[in-house]
Amino acid sequence: MLRNSRIFTLNLYGTVVFVLCLALVSCNDVIEKDISGETPFMIVPQANDTIPEYSHFLWEPLEGATHYRLQIFSPSFASPTFIAFDSTTSANSLFVSLERGTYEYKLTAHNNGYQSLPSGPFPFVVDTVQGSQAQINLNTPSSGSYYNGSFNGFFSWSGLSGVSSYEFSLREGTEYATGTIVHSQNSIASNSISVTNVDYTDGNYVWGVKAYLANGASTTTFTSTFRIDDTPPVTPTLVAPADNAIVSSPVTFTWSNASDTGIIQSPVTSIVQVATDEAFTSIETSETVTGTTTDIPLPSGNYYWRVYNMDAAGNQGSYSTVRTLTVN
Question: CA triplet 232, 235, 237: central angle to 5 degrees?
């Protein structure tokens, strides 16, 4: 009987130790990083910026934070007239719609155990200047244009009188309001900028420029789109005339193109080359064709012909096979 009591006591002791160990492990698993001495950093807008009515608030992620609280009071936190915005998100950005006016924002980071120091409060203004004198024309890249991966990242727009600085934003997507910001810059003194720190891959891009006026107001953000197509067009397949064919002039050349590949499929044109030598050093004629057939008048003789494709982004595809023909 005594032996059984000892066994029970030992088993009970082991169970208690095991439960305590599990509790310690569980406690370690939920320990949060202490972020109470850190401050999140707001990327845009910054203090004293003037922004449009619908704007993107973007901040750097804070290590250890699981969610963020963005508060916007008008005209200030010290003397608030109303709370314009108060929201919590697990992301590091929010789109906010505000009426024209004067505001202050404050950003804090949180996790299950701690709250960071606030970023702010920082003042900013929501304002818009209407009228033809506030029009900014976005010049380069032109609206709806195509570029390949060698795009040089140069952006230019028309200047306005009475401007103290410009704000620039480049976003990936088809809509400026919801696009992913890949580059933004404030306090630009000129009416152009070179953005070379971006990997311009296949996709849609939208860019915007806003002017800050010397009188303290600002224009709306004017936007434009362009596309990057970095995929060469397909290689044509020759259809007619058949190899070694004997034909009359004008000669009807026909080929086929498979479906274009890549995310962005810029318009494709075909270039038909007819030469008197197989190396194509003596090209008799070269025609650019929209479509897959063309009639070309040729003098009597022996010829070689091939086709390749070019797209609107400047990508050149591979040459087709070469065929010979005789014009009688």
Answer: 160
